[in-house]
Amino acid sequence: MESNLTLDEVTEQSMVFHEDDDVFIAEEIRDSLDFQQEPIMMLEPKKGLMFDSEDDVVRFYNGYAKRKGFSVVRRTTRLSEDNKLNYFTLACSRQGKAQYSSNNSFKPNPSTSMQCPAKSNFSRRGEKFCITSVTIDHNHLISPSKARFLRCHKKLDLHAKRTLELNDQAGIRVNKNFGSLVMEAGGYDKLEYGEKECRNYLQETRRLKLGAGDANAVYQYFLDMQSKDPHFFHVMDVDEDGRLRNVFWADARSRATYESFCDVITFDTTYLTNKYKMLFAPFVGVNHHGESVLLGCGLLSNEDTDTFVWLFKSWLCCMSNNPPNAIIKDKCKAMQNAIK
Question: Per the database record, which ranges form the MULE transposase domain (predicted)?
Fold first, then answer.
């Protein structure tokens, strides 16, 4: 890629955005004419390179790491007396000594750290940041073609986020939602993210939209049911911020019915409520008349493995930890993993 920018244009345009590579590079060139001759988007970290802000530094170094095929971590950080950032280091994520954590000394957990020396140090110069020292070489193999598999480079673009949200609102499952992006891009290798990143994004965007009054109303309803029916069972799952995520409940009739008809149950999450976009997950069995009987219900904020594990554990706890002989389910992989 060649650059037709003049020196004046380079100086005036302190930030350059390249949409295809998703790389932001901020620069101001002061001392070396050699910098001026290099294609702007292909610059490597060099001593004396200036940036307008900390964010520009991070975008620049992440873009460089993505092109080279390694991931980045922040290391040393120093603050001034007025709590301003004065100095920090961005380094290869494989820097540092290997640390193993395992109860079995013969099978230690693997570590990716191998004291890689590659890093760049940045110091404040007024309101800007300057590269003060650089180490380019790595002591391990790096692969530009595999950079998209590294966690720090797996990012959803605005188009992908919008597509995921629209499809999710239409009730399309995450695996099919992700599949539409794969088809649009022309293959898995054309995407810089995977299905896991899509699931995580949707999990954040579609947290249970229960207001404080709604969540409290659910809790009060459960307490009221329990006062009328001592065998009424309910569990409410909240996140680290105290926000309601998932709910499970079963009345005395459902629990008693399961004791007699626990051979085979069906489980499905294809139902959606309109108001809160929550998955409705009923456990259904069959009685001796061939009729469907309800054995418990859940409202879920997500379809990932952790959510299904929580739901199945809650249901088994409700049913005295007596698992059925068989479960008929759909082809959801996360559900399959949870059942295993």
Answer: 264-340
